[in-house]
Specification:
509 residues; alpha/beta; two-stranded antiparallel ribbon; 14 helices; 11 strands
Length: 509
């Protein structure tokens, strides 16, 4: 055996090892660029080691990234400063506007802005509102010229006065009671139906006792027949309207108390025509008598399921044409005649009679002395004087708090809960802060004395005013109830025949 086969082959130095050879040495393998040294791998295109190239590229990327971050930060800082400057200027402008509005007394606009809503000003639309020399809406508490009143009617008189009248005609006083029964209980003035009177004198008696007061010009009914609007022509050619409404268990008549109205409220159709004259006691009452006659003839559709056999008008609301308390004496005489026992009167319940006013404070204070438990309703429509001065012109004489005080005094004297009527008008008087203000003012005078009736505004010819949105109406009611104020949304009737609240204009069209 040759010596060459038995002698071990010497190990090759690492520096001389070729790429295809593996070292069989027990020396550890190179595991990183850092331990391999600069000569372990080929240099990059620049002649620098890969390690340096990688480190250089990373540094440049980081530099570019940092530079972009700084640019973005600088731009963001500039934007923030611009926004802050704009916001500061906006805040200064708003503050200046608020100061100006406060100085001018336009608090409602300021509060509406803070609520994020518009404040619409109440101006008459579609008609020219009567203005005084001072540029304010002109009130008409009395007619400007003397007008002729209707002839005296049996309904204008007490039973004793009727008896005296018949004695003047040479008839016994008991005939007065017979005539009263025919009118107040049988709802007739037809002499042919008065068989208990001397035949030869019936025509004479009817002519003396019952001069014609109201002549029906037009009758409009809703599709369901539950509401009827009447247009009446009076003895002097004036026209008025009344509305008959059937509800489950009751029949309500909305009566007029004046020919036109002098209150000059811009949202009410009646106020567009101004005041012609006051209606007489008998003219007010004859609206009820004629309505009862229509009911007896089946004109309201007869009894309905759930009705409790009301065969005549059971409820009266003085919410037709006119301001009832501007015709105080005749209205109160009519109310007394409504509650007087038959045959002197209609024998109605005073609790079913509602007298409404826009706020004639001296007259409100007189109501408690009538010794009748009827319901008193204040048409407020705004709790703040700024808006109410424009919305209800009588507020220029008696402010909102004065009217609320007078209403509370009525409750304190009579124990009868007062109703506050409030027509909700979009973006005009339906802001949340007004609901809170109204509740606070009512609560400041006590608990349990008042009930609020929000009324969705009814459209009138020529006006673009609209009722509040349903969501706003709900919000408004909820805010009142949250403060403990009993609140009920009014169920208005007769919109389609222009017979709802604020729509009566006595038009023959």
């Amino acid at each position: 055996m040759s010596a060459s086969k038995n002698t071990p082959e010497p190990s090759l130095p690492l520096e001389r090892a070729t790429s295809g050879q593996r070292s069989r040495s027990s020396a550890p393998a190179i595991s990183s660029i850092e331990s391999a040294g600069a000569a372990s791998r080929p240099a990059g295109s620049t002649g620098r080691p890969v390690r340096d190239v990688i480190r250089g590229n990373t540094a440049r990327r980081n530099a570019r990234s940092n530079s972009g971050y700084e640019d973005r930060t600088q731009r963001s800082d500039r934007n923030d400063r611009t926004i802050a400057w704009i916001e500061t200027k906006d805040a200064e402008r708003r503050l200046a506007e608020e100061r100006k509005l406060t100085q001018e007394g336009r608090v409602s606009e300021l509060r509406a802005r803070r609520e994020g809503r518009e404040q619409v000003r109440p101006t008459a639309e579609g008609w020219k509102q009567a203005m005084g020399a001072d540029g304010r809406p002109e009130l008409q508490f009395a007619t400007k010229k003397r007008v002729t009143q209707p002839p005296t009617h049996f309904a204008d008189l007490t039973l004793e006065e009727r008896q005296a009248k018949l004695k003047e005609l040479g008839l016994p006083s008991f005939r007065a009671k017979q005539l009263s029964v025919h009118y107040f209980q049988h709802y007739t003035t037809d002499p042919a139906l008065m068989s208990d009177l001397p035949k030869e004198r019936r025509e004479e008696l009817v002519e003396a006792a019952f001069p014609t007061l109201l002549t029906e010009v037009k009758r409009l009914a809703t599709d369901d027949g539950a509401t009827i609007k009447f247009l009446w022509r009076l003895f002097d050619g004036s026209t008025v309207e009344s509305v008959l409404m059937r509800y489950p268990g009751r029949i309500t008549l909305c009566v007029s108390s004046q020919c036109g109205c002098g209150m000059n409220c811009p949202f009410c159709a009646t106020g567009q025509s101004g005041l012609t004259r006051n209606m007489s006691t008998a003219e007010i009452l004859d609206q009820i008598i004629q309505a009862n006659r229509v009911i007896a003839e089946g004109g309201l559709g007869g009894l309905r399921p759930g009705d409790h056999a009301p065969e005549r008008v059971t409820n009266i609301v003085f919410m037709g044409m006119g301001e009832p308390l501007a015709n105080y004496k005749r209205v109160m005489r009519a109310v007394h005649r409504m509650v007087d026992e038959a045959p002197e009167g209609l024998g109605m319940s005073a609790r079913n009679i509602t007298v409404s006013t826009v706020g004639l404070v001296p007259a409100i204070r007189k109501l408690a002395d009538e010794n009748l438990p009827f319901t008193f309703a204040l048409s407020l429509h705004a709790p703040d004087d700024e808006l109410r001065d424009e919305l209800i012109p009588v507020n220029s004489r008696w402010k909102a708090d004065e009217a609320i005080d007078a209403a509370y005094e009525y409750y304190a004297k009579t124990g009868r809960r007062v109703s506050i009527e409030y027509a909700l008008i979009k973006d005009m008087n339906d802001h949340a802060w007004r609901a809170d203000l109204l509740a606070d003012k009512l609560n400041a005078r006590g608990k349990g004395w008042v009930h609020v009736n929000p009324i969705p505004l009814n459209p009138t010819p020529g006006s673009v005013w609209t009722s509040s949105e349903p969501a706003v109406t709900r919000m408004w009611i909820e805010r009142l109830e949250a403060k403990g104020i009993p609140t009920t949304l009014r169920d208005t009737r007769g919109k389609e025949i222009d017979g709802a609240c604020g729509q009566l204009a006595a038009s023959e069209a």
